[in-house]
Fold:
Amino acid sequence: MQLKMELPEDILLLLADVSIQKNNILLCTDTDLDVSGNYAQEWLVVTESRILRIGAEISEHYGTSRILLDIPVDSIKSARIDGRVGSSFLEVEVDDYFQEILRFSNVYAQRFGKVVGKINELVKGRSIIITEEDDEDRRRCSKCGRVISATGGVCPKCLNKGAVFIRFLKLMTPYWPTGLMIFVFLICGIFLDLLPPRLTKMLVDNVFGGDVPPKWFLSIANVFDATDPMSWLVILVFSLATAQLLRICINIINGRLATKMGTQIAFDLRQRVYERLQELSISYYDRNQVGQLMTRVNQDIEELQGFVWQVTHGFIVNMLLLVGIGIMLFTMNPTLALYILLPTPLVASSTYIFWRFVRPKYRRYWDRRAKLNGILYAAFSGVRVVKAFAQEAREAARFKLYSHNLREAKIGVDVASSTFHPIVGFIFNLGGLIVWYAGGKDVLADTITLGTLMAFLGYLGMFYGPLAQIINMSQWLTSFMTAAHRMFDILDTEPEIVDVPYAKDIDIQGEIEFSNVTFGYFRHNPILKDMNLKINSGEMIGIVGPSGSGKTTLINLICRFYDPNEGVVKIDGLDIRTISKTCLRRQIGLVLQEPFLFRGTIAENIAYGRPDASFEEIMEAAKAANAHDFIVRFPDGYDTKLGESGSGLSGGERQRVSIARALLCDPKILILDEATSSVDTESERAIQEALSILTKGRTTIAIAHRLSTLRNSDRIIVMEDGRIKEMGTHSELMELDGLYHRLVIIQLQLTKDSESISQLAEESRLQRVAGDN
Amino acid sequence: MSNMCYSKIKYIHPDCVRFFNDEKTNSLSVKLDCKVYNHVKVYRTSPISYPTKYISLRVGTSSSEETEIGIIRDPDSLPLESRALIERELDKRYFIHIITKIHSIKEEFSFLYWDVDTDKGRKEFVVASRAHHRITEYGENGRIILDLDWNRYQIPDLRDLDEQSRRLFYRYIYW
Ligand SMILES: Nc1ncnc2c1ncn2[C@@H]1O[C@H](COP(=O)(O)OP(=O)(O)OP(=O)(O)O)[C@@H](O)[C@H]1O
Ligand SMILES: [Mg+2]
Structure:
C-alpha cells in the first residue's frame, strides 16, 4: 500500500537504533526528491510520537541512509503542503513557523495530500487509519499507471479499441433503416462501377476485333434482333450510357441519404454531449477550459460526422470495390493481375509519407488559423482597451506576426501537397505503364486480346485510389477513435455532485449550519478551515473580510456547487447532500459578484429562473431591485434586447437586473455576493430599503466591501484566511475593537476624505465667485 | 504624486543587508537595517525575463500573511556566501527540468509521449497534445512544457537544441 510501504532492511536497522520497531510505524511512504531538489528516494516514517525523514546524506557516506530529520509529534500544531513551482514541500507547524519535512515532485501530489490529512489527524490526537481507499488514485489508470486527462476518465492506452467501435456502432443503431438503404445502393453502385470496362472489352474484341461474342450476349442481342456488329455497337454504347446514368442517380440518392444521416447523428450526439456537460459540476469547469469544451462539442463531433461519411463512402465502398476489381482482374488474367500488385509497396509508402509529413502540415495550418482567430477575437472584444491605451499599432503588429505565421503554414501545406500529389499520381500511373508493357507483350504474342488489355487498364484506373485509402484506414480509425474516445469521455464523466438515491424535495425554512467544514478547490490547499456557523432562518447576515478570504467559497458550498472535503453543511438540520439539487437551488436566490445576463430581452432575463412568471410579477421584482425606472426609460422598456453577456447595460444596471432575477424566484434563502458594489449610493439605499421589506421571512446572506450596506444586518461575520474571525452585530463588533472596527475606521476615513474634497471644491467655487465680483 | 504617501518597492542596498543560515531549521535569516527576519523565502519576480535579477525576499507563514521585506536588484553585487544562500533558497522554490535533447516524441490518441534528456537526467513524460495552454512560450525562442502532473520542463532556447531534437519538436508543436 502506498501509505504503508515496505521499508528496506538497512532503514529498519537504522530505526531500531533509535528504538522504533516495525510495528510502531503508523505510516511509511517514499518520495522522489531530496530537499535540494535532486531525484533521490527518501522515506517518511510516522509513529505515534515522531515524524522522521530518512535518506542518503549527500556529502559524506554517499549511498548510506541516515535519519535526516526527527520531529516529536507533540511539538507540531498542524501539517500542510506548500505547493511551489514544479514541486511541493510537506511542512509542519512548530512554534511559529513551518518546518520543511520533505519534498516531492508533482507526481506524488495526491499521495502527500492524503499524508497531510493523516498527520493532522494524529496531531489532533486521533489515530491514523490507512484503508484500501487511500491507495486509489483516480487520476491514474488502474491498469497501467498512466495519467488520465480527466479525473475518473478512461485511459487511452488501456482502452479497448474494439469496444469503442462497438459502442459507437450501438449509438448508430437508431439509424439502421437509412444505413441499410445506403448499403444496398452502395452494392448496386459498385456493380455499375465494374460494368463499363467489361463492356469496353466486348466493344474492342467482339465489335471491332471480329471475335464471336459470348453466348449470353448473343441471347440478349437476339431479343433485339441484333445480329451484326453494327447493332451490337448500338446495344453496347446504349448499355454504357445506361450504366453511367444509373450510377449518377445512385450517387445523388446516396449522397442525400448519407448527408441526412450524418448530420442527424451529429445533431443527436452534440445534444447529448451538451446536456451531459450542463449536468457536470462546477469543479469540472474549473479543470477544463471553456474553450476546450467548446472544441469538444463542435470539432470532435464534426470528426465523428466525417467518420459516418467515411463508413458510407469511404472504406466500405473501397473495400468492396477492391474485392470486385480483384476478382475481375484475376479471372481475366491472373499473371497480369499480379503485375498490377507490383507498385503496392510504393502506394503504401506514399500513404505513410502523407500521414507522417503532409498531414502534420495541415494540422499546423489549422492550429495557426485557430490562433489567429483567437487573436482577432481578443482584439475586437477588447477594442475599448486597445483604443484607450492607443495601442492600435501594436495590435496591428501582433496581428501581422500571427498572420505571417499563418501564411508560412499555408505555404508549407501547399508546397507539401503540390509535391506530394504529382508524385502519388506518378506512382498510380506506374501500374498503367506496367500493364501497357507486360500486357502489350501478351497482346503481340496473341496470348490475350486487345479488349482484355483495355479492360485491365480500365480497372486499373479504379484500383490504386481505393487501395491507398484502405492502407490509410488504420490512420483514419485512429483519428476517429480519438474523437469518439473524447466524446465518450464526456458522456462517461459522472458529475461529482450527485443526488443521493434517497434525496428529498423539501420546503426549506432557511436555517443554515456549517459544522466542522473544511474545503479547498484543491484538496491540499484548504480555503475554508474548520468552519462552524449557524444561521437562523429569517436572519439577515452580512459577511465582510479581505479579498480572497473565502466569502464566495462559503456561498459556493451553501449552493452546493462543491461538496466540503470534511464536515457537513446542513439546511434545516438536514445534510445538504440529502436534499435534491434542483429543489435546493430553486429555493436559493443568488446574485453573483459578476452578474451574468444572457442574450435576450430584459424581461426574459428577469424571468430566467421562473419562465412562467407573469409580467406584473416581473415588474414587481424589478421595482424592488430599483431597476424598474431605468428600464422603463429605455425606448423598448422591458423588451429591450441585451447583447452577449448583458452588453448594453451599465455595471450597476446589470447588477440590479440580476437582483430582480433573484427576487422573482421568491427564494427562501437570498444570497447577495457584492450585489450592490457597482450601484451608486442612492440606488443602494433604495435597494436596501426594498430588501429590508423583502428579506422579512427569508434568510439573507449579503457580502459587501462597503460596510454601510450591512448596517441593517442582524449579525455580521468577519472572515479572514478561511476562518471566522469575529461575529456579532455592528455595535458589538465596534466595541470589540478588532478587524471590523479597523475596516470601519478606514472606510470612514475615506468618506471623510471625499467629503473634505467636495468641501474644498465648494470653497474654491465660492472664492472664484467672490473674485468675479 | 511626490508628496503623497503610497507604497513603494523597497530595493535593498547590498551594504545594508546580511544573510545567514539558521542552523536549527536550515532556513534563511536576513538582517536588514538592524532588524532580523527569520524563515525568509526567496522568489524570482520575473523568472523568465530576469531569472537572476530582482529577487524578492519575503516573510510570512501563509500566502495571505506574506509580506515583502524588499527586493535585491542584483544578487551578483552580494558576497559569495550570501549568493550561495540565495541560490539554495531558490532551488527550494523552483523545480524545473531543462530539456537538453529530445530522443523521441510519439503521438497516441490525444497524448504526446516524450523521451528527453534533461539537466536532471533522462525523463519520460506525457503531455496532452493540442493543449496549447500546457505548452507555452518562454521568452523569445523558448518553451515551457507542463506534463499531465504539472511537472515543469523548459527549453530555454529552441535554437540551442540539436537539429534532430528541434525537428521532432516542431513536428508536433507548432505554436
Ligand atoms: N475555482 C477556483 N479554483 C481554485 N481556487 C479558487 C477558485 N475560486 C477561488 N479560489 C481561491 O480561493 C480563495 C478564496 O476565494 P473567494 O472567491 O472565496 O474569495 P472572496 O472572499 O470571495 O474574495 P473577494 O472579496 O475578492 O470576492 C482565493 O485565494 C482564490 O484564489
Ligand atoms: Mg468573492
The radius of gyration of chain A is 38 Å. Chain A touches chain B through 47 residues (CB under 8 Å). The CA atoms of residues 750 and 756 of chain A lie 10 Å apart. The mean pLDDT of chain A is 81.
